[in-house]
Amino acid sequence: MQGFYALSMGAGADGALDRKTKELIALAIGTTQRCDGCIGFHTKALHDLGATRQEIAEVAATGAYMCGGPALMYAADTLRAWDQFSEVT
User: Fold this and answer.
1) Which domain holds residue 76?
2) Hey, what's the signal peptide range on this chain (predicted)?
């Protein structure tokens, strides 16, 4: 697990792409892979980084466009996760 943690820290660090952009990419992948834990984790990170609901919706829509129907169903889950995190703050 330490190796994966180190990988995630390196991949998520600011570089040519900033952390928010990388989190948006990670959320798109998590959505298209139908990973509930990924959706929650990356949506929370994006909420904390100041992303907007519109940015989340566009990421979910792009994932659905690229992966078809199954991703579309999880796109709705992604927006529900955003709404839940928004209610907390």
Assistant:
1) 2-88
2) none
